[in-house]
Amino acid sequence: MRTRADTGAPLPALATAATAPVVLVSGLVTAGVRAARETGAVLSAIQSLPDLVRALDRLAPAADALAQLAEARSTLDELAAQVRHLPETLEQLRMLHEQVVAVACDLRALEPEIQGLAETTAALDESIRVLAGALGPLQGTTERVGRLVDRLPERRRRP
């Protein structure tokens, strides 16, 4: 076997040297086919640019809304966290409703008694007015009798 004097590597065979241009041309053809495919993809991407521009134009008005939505993110997160407590709150509201209905039924049962109490209160109010009318003149008389009793001689001797 023949070797190169400077590296000690074997010399290429004559057939290998003859096929090298074919391998080179084959590689170039493969690269050309790949480049053509890639060029087609690039052209397709370029052709879709107007569609992308129109889509961006339609999204532009929503940019403010998207910014507001991003600012509201923490509020939305808090709401999502509070939703977990919603079933408990609904149960408490249901129980409160039942209690309110029970109290309303009790009040309805007490209504005749309350009506009677209102009538009795009105009668007592009238009686108080009559007594006040009768006691008014007696108060003046009582004061005069009291002064008269204080003047009696026997009254002064008692300590």
TrEMBL record:
It comes from the Bacteria. This is Uncharacterized protein.
